[in-house]
Amino acid sequence: MAERWFLALWPDARTRDALVCQTAGALPEAARPTHPADLHLTLVFLGELDAGRVACVEAVAEAVSAPAFELEIDRLGHFTRSRVLWCGPSCTPEVAQTLIGSLQSGLEGCGIAPERRSFRPHLTLARKVSRYQGHALPEVVIWPVRELVLAFGVSGSRPRYRAHRRWRLSVAS
After folding, report:
1. Tell me, what's the pLDDT at 173?
2. Residue 10: pLDDT above 70?
3. What is the per-residue pLDDT for 135?
4. Which are the contacts of 76, defined by CB distance < 8 A and separation ≥ 6?
5. Which CATH number fits the domain that encloses residue 65?
6. 146 is in which domain, residue-wise?
7. Higher pLDDT residue, 67 or 114?
């Protein structure tokens, strides 16, 4: 298994459709848009994993307890160096930060070192964006986050990403 793996949040169909609708006007003509089914927010990039490490990552994700929460997707941004146009929240809820910390801590036992860069939550909207004109989202998209997803990429395919396994986040009764 040489695919590139990651743990992510995946929007439900309603949220995905709202994101596509609210961000459509921001995509420059020359941009390479992300397939709508590929929209996700990476929590932890894992890289290439063998079957043993996939099993270890699954055990870590299974053991993590986190409540469901909401993300307010309210801004667009541009990573100049990687030429990526993205959308994301202005403010990351504490529960999301705690979830990432718990995952990274558990993944150290799998031999996966925590990311050194600070977490910048975003969903990639398009690649090959040289310049960003500063469009804003017409309306905030409220994303009810209800699950954690272990996924991997398949090169040469669209959509590119495949969900391998999902875990429900706890919902208060």
Report:
1. 47
2. yes
3. 73
4. 23, 26, 85, 86, 87, 125, 132, 135, 136, 137
5. 3.90.1140.10
6. 4-168
7. 67
